[in-house]
Amino acid sequence: MRAFRVHEMGEPGEVLRYETVEPPEPGPGQVLVQVRAAAVNFPDALLCRGTYQAKPPLPFTPGLELCAEVVGTGEGVAGHAVGDRVLGSTELPTGGFAEYALMNEGAAFPAPASLSDDEAASLFIGYQTGWFALHRRASLQPGETVLVHAAAGGVGSAAIQLAKAAGARVIGVVGGPEKAKAATELGADVVVDRNTEDFVAVTKELTDGRGADVVFDPVGGDSFKRSTKCVAFEGRIVIIGFASGTIPEPALNHALIKNYSLVGLHWGLYRQRAPEVIGQAHTRLVELADQGLVKPLVSERVGPDGLADGVQRLADGATVGRLVYAPAS
Fold first, then answer.
1. Mind listing the GO molecular function terms for this protein (predicted)?
2. Domain for residue 278, yes or no?
3. 97 neighbors 307 (Cβ within 8 angstroms)
């Protein structure tokens, strides 16, 4: 089969090599899948750079999230059969940027018929992250205001739709007019281009000085620091990640005097400690997809000729919505 592999750490555009390799064999509890579409995520770029928390042995194939067809099962697999259309996360080092990949049985879920392969490939990591952040960690309530950073990105775009589906008002923060257009199309009530506007001032004006009840922050750095200036009394700042490359050092006395909470979300831990809740979230996400309340914004589809450049552009913050790899393209 053909697959992209990383042999040494570096920038995605330089280290992703398209090679011919033997297809993987499913082990106990694993399923072998033929990849229909694999969504590109920021952690795929971090894997290439060697800065992600998971460090698979070299060489490895990135691609953490996909939609695929089951073509083989390992010993003990009972919940999946050949021909099933599934979505979920791959089992590194055999990721989704290939013609075939491996998935653990518990990480493969039925793909909803209401979504295309490209859309279904994008429903797992970003939407699961958004669901857990807003509902399990921030306990979002109808009528609250949610401030979403990187609102046109993979997890940010999911957060907009999930917050709107929950009855919240959404302020999306983006960088540039193209991303502002995408965030508006996703359903954000107000979109702030951070290159030309101050999201702190806009948030305070929109909420009559109260501030945002929930801040969804996958960026860190200055976005986090300035968010503390416009978070509401008893608000919640959910820390998703640090796409800016800067891990902020919060002034905890400020959280004390303003009565807001700093809430961390490492979604991957649920796979280890409470995997059943991931299945529960998937069921709810499928219901929302079937109702038309969530629909991944797939803005670009690339084949083998465009993947390495696409992952690099995502790493550089130059993509909008979801970028999807299709091996057959």
1. quinone reductase (NADPH) activity; zinc ion binding
2. no
3. yes
Task: Count up the domains in the chain and report the number.
Answer: 2
- Tell me if 7 is assigned to some domain: yes
- Start-to-end C-alpha separation, the chain: 15
Q: Please check whether residues 130 and 153 belong to one and the same domain.
A: yes
Structure tokens that stand for 237 in this block:
């700042």
| Residues 6 or more apart in contact with residue 141 via CB below 8 angstroms | 168, 213
Residue type, 58: L
Distance CA 99, CA 101 (A): 7
Clarify whether residues 254 and 139 are in a common domain: yes
Assigned domain for 206 exists: yes
Q: Quick one: which of 272, 145, 285, 269 has its CA closest to 203?
A: 145
Q: Are 221 and 246 in contact (CB under 8 A)?
A: yes
CATH of the domain at 61: 3.90.180.10
CATH number at residue 239: 3.40.50.720
User: What pLDDT tens digit does each residue of the chain (329 aa) get?
Assistant: 999 999 999 999 999 999 999 999 999 999 999 999 999 999 999 999 999 888 999 999 999 999 999 999 999 999 899 999 999 999 999 999 999 999 999 999 999 999 999 999 999 999 999 999 999 999 999 999 999 999 998 899 999 999 999 999 999 999 999 999 999 999 999 999 999 999 999 999 999 999 999 999 999 899 999 999 999 999 999 999 888 778 888 888 888 889 999 999 999 899 889 999 999 999 999 999 999 999 999 989 999 999 999 999 999 988 888 999 999 86
**Structural domain includes residue 211:** yes
d(CA 286, CA 291): 8
Domain that holds residue 72: 2-123+296-325
- Residue 282's SS3 state is helix
